[in-house]
Amino acid sequence: MARAAISTAPLSRLHSPTPSISQIPHAQSQLRIRQQRKPLTVASALPQVADLPALSLPAAAAAAAALAAAVSLSDPERRRKAQAEAVGGGDKEAVRAYFNSTGFERWRKIYGSATDDVNRVQLDIREGHAQTVAATLAMLRDAPDVPLAGATVCDAGCGTGSLSIPLASAGASVLASDISAAMVSEAQRQAQLAAGSPDFRMPRFEVRDLESLEGSYDIVVCLDVLIHYPREEAQKMIRHLASLAEKRLVISFAPKTLYFDLLKRVGELFPGPSKATRAYLHSEKDIEEALRAAGWRVKNRGFISTQFYFAKLYEAVPVSGSSS
To answer: What is the pLDDT of residue 196?
Structure first.
């Protein structure tokens, strides 16, 4: 599978504002965006083998048992069940409760532009999300059959408006919805601050979960939402979103690989009081099967990866009537 990269030069490395449409480079058949990282020199940080104390067999066995117990305690299924029980419902109720409380404050900082009280991990996730938004805008701008000016767009899971606002600035008619009333309120506030450009069209904001969305749109976009839902629910959501879209469906998801699954497990060892531990990874096969079942196919693919953020980005089109 060929890899045609795009430049992200208009984005500053960290805490940059969402780019305008005119700043986004042209997308090609596949996007692959990676943050430059300094090489890790693990060996220099480790003591020499001769300096390490010898472990007796019982001590080694105890260490192995402790590690196994720690991984077991990080079992995401156990965490998900506890979170759902705490709010008296399932995944959707837990997500709503989280993003209306501690999760809202955490992600408002991540999606914002301030640097006070924002740690290195949050800054890195901010950068990854900004790259996903930039890649999405590039894909949509390069769709010759759907000019953004005047297009109807449903931003499903709009968060604080990081995608809805630049779409509205390009002249699109945007429905911005989110399961969290707190997120929608913040997105409205951000949109009011951004209003003023000649082409800006104030989005219509609604507090809705994905399943209750209605209507018909030229473009439906759902970024960084499927990570909160398990396989069966995510596939239902994809089919529902596809039923709302006429010409384009753009979704992002955290890919399920051995490496990313291990990385997620390690992160769940240190959840923190405001950290979302409800993270579901999805295989590309499952996502593509859900799209095919709805009569859609993947036209463009992207992959965004920073140190603590990773996402696959799919642009899909209807199978009927598509020729490329």
So the answer is: 83
